[in-house]
Amino acid sequence: MFTISVCMIVKDEQDVILRILNCAKEFADEIIIVDTGSKDNTVNICKTYTKNIYYFEWCNDFAKARNFSFSKATKDYIMWLDADDLISPENIQKIIRLKNTESPADCYMFKYVMGFVEGAPTFEFYRERLLNRSSDFEWVGFVHEAIAPNGKIIYTDIEIEHRKIKASDPKRNLKLYRYAIRHGVAFNPREQYYYSRELYFNGHYKKAITELNKYLKSGDTYIPNITGAHLILAKCYLATNQPQKAKLTLVDSIATYMPSSETCCVLANTFEKLHKINMAILWYNIALITPINNDGFVQKDYYDYIPYIELCRLYYRLDYNKSKYYFLKAKELKPNANEIIHNQPFFE
């Protein structure tokens, strides 16, 4: 059996923090709260759960704040959580059972689940979540911070849900990257990749194309980021009306690495823009048989619902029976989705 320190960095989280504290108290032997400048009632709420409240002067660096929180932990293992995380009763029990194991690892990987539609998760990936304190793990990255797991690593079926109740500033991370650029920070390949992603998410497609190409020449060897860069680069080309370049980018990725279903679907969409409908149909069908790879981000809808609804649409003028077949497959998954409700009259 081992003990757990739960470490959290927080700021103005009074609307959500009770939720995760009630979860953490069920298995944590110690709760560490590091406040980075709250002006609401966050700290007072936390004081009802723990005496371990610390203050950290914000310096535009999430890794430094995380490492400060880890430095205050005293138990065998450290688990990090965010204020808007949530752990189901079932997963709380799994964590409690894990504490009673006799062969502890250096790092336990949990699924991080987010992007919910109609209550069902659509986006998930594994994160280093429970770490042996004696292994002296360290966070790196001033934004999109992470720990490089090493030693004995065990992947579990434990899930942590990230459930926001209000939208955060979509430009927050991009502002941090631009702050770093102004202060002469040279990005490593991982930071270059995530900076490019933020440019894309904020609609700066031409700049994202430049930065993604710079990343792809960086010599990085981490395959999930390389394939992710190809995928986002293709989306940028599509957003700037360059489908031929999008196709070449995706084909180059697929020729070297195992594609995700999202890659297959974006390639299908690219072929449709190139007026090659049969190729679009082919790649949506390939998306349906592509195995899930948990090494990177997993967008679940690309493995079933999106190919089904797109094949329904593409077949509608070609083969009514096939169109209806794919509509019904999509409807099984999401009977209340807007596309299903809109298309229902056509198949009645």
Protein described:
Strands 1, 2, 3, 4, 5, 6, 7, 8 and 9 form a nine-stranded mixed beta sheet that branches. The protein has helices at about 15-25, 40-45, 60-70, 90-100, 170-180, 190-200, 205-215, 225-240, 245-255, 260-275, 275-290, 305-315, 320-335, 340-345, and strands spanning about 5-10, 30-35, 55, 75-80, 85, 105-115, 120-130, 155-160, 300. The mean pLDDT is about 95. The protein contains 14 helices and nine strands. Helix 6 (about 190-200) runs antiparallel to helix 7 (about 205-215) and helix 7 runs antiparallel to helix 8. The protein is an alpha/beta fold. It starts with a strand and ends with a helix.
Provide tags for this entry.
348 residues, alpha/beta, 9-stranded mixed sheet
What can be said about this structure in brief?
With 348 residues, this protein is α/β, with parallel strands linked by helices. It is 47% helix and 17% strand.
What is the count of DSSP helices, taking H or I runs of 4+ residues? 14
- Please describe the biggest sheet, giving its number of strands, its sense, and whether it closes into a barrel: 9 strands, mixed
Structural class: alpha/beta
DSSP E strands, number: 9
Strand content: 15-25%
The overall pLDDT average reads 95
Radius of gyration: 22 Å
Low-confidence stretches: none
Q: Gap between N and C termini, in Å?
A: 59 Å
The gross shape turns out to be globular
Helix content: 40-55%
Order of helices and strands: EHEHEHEEHEEEHHHHHHHEHHH
